[in-house]
Amino acid sequence: MKPLSLLLLLFAAGCTEHSQHAPPPAPQAPPANPVQAEMRLLSATLQSAVRGIGAGDVRSVEHELHRLHAAKETTEAAIRSGSYRLPRNPDRVDRFRELDEAFHGGLGGLVQASRRNDVAATAEALGVVLRGCQGCHSEFRP
To answer: Do residues 97 and 140 make contact, with C-beta atoms less than 8 angstroms apart?
Structure first.
């Protein structure tokens, strides 16, 4: 039994040691357009929510979602001005806006749960948000 315990201890120590020396993530090119910038910010925000759920503290998610709202406004302005054109189904801007409004409206549950630091409700709201991604991506993502 002792050799097994020693083996497990060495394995755990090796995993911890390896995780501390993981290579840094590859640098990303700057976003090519406002939608790409918004999607990167959304991705980072959702990853933060997952980390917060794991840590038992989701209070920071609300602040990050407010930053995301500002990025949404930049996207809307670019679409209105014509400086951004949807790469797929560009003739369906009204549908894009409809899905975008519904998606961002769904983020409200995540904001409320995060504000209360309600980890279980944040996890539930995160699931709702993630399910909302597919509609827009299936119609508009190249």
So the answer is: no
Phi, psi of 22 (to 5 degrees): -65, 140
For 122, list phi and psi in degrees, rounded to 5: -65, -45
pLDDT digit string, tens, across residues 77-109 = 999 999 999 999 999 999 999 999 999 998 999
Number of alpha carbons in the 13 Å side-chain half-sphere of residue 89 = 13
Q: Which DSSP helix (H) or strand (E) runs through 114?
A: helix 93-115
Count other Cβ atoms within 10 Å, centred on residue 86.
Answer: 17
Q: Which CATH superfamily is domain 33-140 in?
A: Cytochrome c/b562 (1.20.120.10)
Domain range list for the chain: 33-140
Q: What is the 3-state composition of the chain as percent helix, strand, coil, each rounded to the nearest 5?
A: 75, 0, 25
Residues 65 and 30: their CA atoms lie apart, in Å, by 21
- Tell me the C-alpha distance between 24 and 45, whole Å: 19
- What is the rounded CA–CA span in Å between residue 41 and residue 76? 15
Q: Lowest mean pLDDT: which of 6-15, 108-117, 119-128?
A: 6-15
